[in-house]
Design a protein that fits this description.
This protein has 159 residues and is an alpha+beta fold. Helices cover 29% and strands 31% of the residues. A hairpin with a 2-residue loop joins β2 and β3. The structure holds magnesium ion. Magnesium ion (MG) binds next to β1.
Amino acid sequence: MRVGIGHDTHRLEAGRPLLLGGVLVPHARGLVGHSDADIVLHALTDALLGAAALGDIGDLFPDTDPAHRDADSALFLSEALRRVNQAGWGVVNVDVIIHAQEPKLGPVKQTIRANPARLLELPLDAVNVKAKTGERVGHIGRAEALACQVVTLIDRLPS
Ligand code: MG
């Protein structure tokens, strides 16, 4: 078995959609990035790649590539899963922490959880999503950015 860790941070800005785990969360501001800036899918992608020692999201999908402009990050996660599976590993579970002062994520946590479960072909009870505020300090607490951390466990696929 192997563990992997992923992290991502993106700035919040008016006039952008807020996508978390592929779910559109109603909010006045959204995350800024070259792709759709979905911190949950980016951190998940990095955690999977990390567990299988396959590099990181920047190696696979450089943000200098115009093809990735406003890209659907579900494609990044699906490609990472394909590579992890191809290397002989299956995903056991993922645990996600979203750091957000605003919006309040309590009401949407369960919705956010279902989408990565579907993308990773995992049962719902193998995916957990937690939400933390920034306690009003630092870039999270001042609501300048959102961040996400993910830990995943992978195991050898039966041969
Ligand atoms: Mg990112």
